[in-house]
Design brief:
nucleus; alpha+beta; 3 helices; about 35% helix; 10 strands; 10-stranded antiparallel beta sheet; single chain; about 20% strand; coiled coil; about 290 residues; globular
């Protein structure tokens, strides 16, 4: 089955799941209205009789079951979305590799700067929010939670990569994984900024995987970097990571971090607060300020 056919099937299944969610919600609204009316009658009569207690217990039990059923459908829908995104990513990587390695094809076109910045913003906005079950801890690569020690980034994954610049200085850039050699424990990565069209071979210690889920500050605040914590953050409108301090962590799932970049041109050594998405904030491997 081709990727296009599979994607079409998944989209059809997703559409059905969305309809099921709406139907489930419509059914549950009637029960929620009954709960509200029962509470209003109790307030009017100013008493809580055994009859009302029994009735409310049954209504709340039904409401809980309705919510769990809707939650199950929504999780199934999220799984379908993740599958679609995975297939689209596989197709993108295949097209890119064909363009890179085929002698008969023309070389890659340089992407306009504005287009690249827009794509990076879209990638940050569409990063899925981790929604765990009650009592479930956020997984590695959720928000500020680091990857496990034996984690190997997959082909196409975005990472922060420490490379040598033209002037000999080292810098952290946004890169895409091309491959990983298990014999040498080294990655091959491409600079995401196609203006450079550079490929680098780097050891694992020079690679930091980017988050794969956003952490929800309302349910999993421990998965976020805390105020004054030292991090590497992607400087706005660039493809380079720089050392920064967390000024304010996100308060809501859709919020960005507010960070203070190290900058010697300011009296206190830090820039004014700038917003950086969760997608582009990672732990800093260097603790001492240079």
């Amino acid at each position: 089955m081709s990727a296009d056919t599979k994607i079409a099937e998944l989209l059809t299944e997703l559409h059905l799941l969305i309809k099921q969610t709406q139907e489930e919600r419509s059914r549950s609204e009637h029960n929620l209205l009954n709960i509200q009316k029962t509470h209003e009658r109790m307030q009017t009569e100013n008493k809580t009789s055994p009859y009302y207690r029994t009735k409310l217990r049954g209504l709340y039990t039904t409401a809980k079951a309705d919510a769990e059923a809707e939650c199950s459908i929504l999780r199934h829908a999220l799984d379908k979305i993740a599958e679609i995104k995975s297939l689209l990513e596989e197709r993108r990587i295949a097209a890119k590799m064909a363009g890179v390695y085929s002698d008969s094809d023309p070389p890659r076109k340089t992407m306009r700067r504005g287009v690249l910045m827009t794509l990076l913003q879209q990638s940050a906005m569409t990063l899925p929010l981790w929604i765990g079950k009650p009592g479930e801890s956020p997984p590695p690569l959720c928000g500020g939670t680091p990857a496990s020690s034996d984690y190997v980034a997959k082909q196409g994954d975005k990472v922060a990569a420490r490379v040598k610049a033209v002037d000999g200085d080292e810098q952290w850039i946004l890169a895409e994984v091309v491959s990983y050699n298990h014999s040498t424990n080294k990655y091959e990565v491409d600079d995401i900024d196609e203006e450079g069209k550079e490929r680098h071979t780097l050891s694992r210690r020079r690679i930091i995987p980017l988050p794969q889920w956003k952490a929800n500050p309302e349910t999993d605040p421990e998965a976020l970097f805390s105020k004054d914590q030292l991090v590497l953050a992607l400087y706005p409108q660039t493809t380079c990571f720089y050392r920064a301090l967390i000024h304010t962590p996100p308060h809501r799932p859709q919020d960005d971090y507010s960070v203070l970049f190290e900058d010697t041109s300011y009296a206190d050594g830090y820039s004014p607060p700038l917003n950086v998405a969760q997608r582009y904030v990672v732990a800093c491997k260097e603790n001492k300020k240079k």
